[in-house]
Sequence to fold (162 residues):
Amino acid sequence: MVVLPGLQERLDDIGRGIAEKAGFEFVHCQIAGSRRSPVVRVFIDKPGGVTIDDCAVVSREMEDVLDREDLIPTSYVLEVSSPGIERELFSLVDFKRFVGHDARIKTVHPVGGQRNFSGTIETVDGQTIDIIDRTSGKVSIPFDSVVKANLVADLQSEFKKA
Fold:
């Protein structure tokens, strides 16, 4: 979808403000779908996870602002949800927060002859993420080469919590 200039930044600002005011972490906002029927996805989180009621609170507030400011000139679908247990990592702050957790990282260019990594995030130093990859051992990945990164769920740990 072609995004109007400044729309992504404005949606991020609105989503962040609403989520933080309601006591949630703003994780990410994404614009998907087509130009004729866009989908605005907002991901929020809180310790212990978010509930449907939490998503409804943010959704109502977000919809009010989007409609009042008429930022999206066509009808749209607004989705507010949790980032899930295999949460996507978008920023260095995310990587720092999840040091010690398992993750999958895909890079745009090979690092040490490899583009896909799976292992434990060891450290984040400046713009570099160190991961203990299951195949290659310790690998230093420049953040600007990361195309996609997700946490890997530890299902045994999740079942124990339940």
The chain has a mean pLDDT of 92. The beta strands are 25-33, 38-45, 77-81, 102-111, 114-125, 128-133, 137-142, 146-151. The chain has four helices and eight strands. Residues 33 and 153 are 28 Å apart (CA to CA).
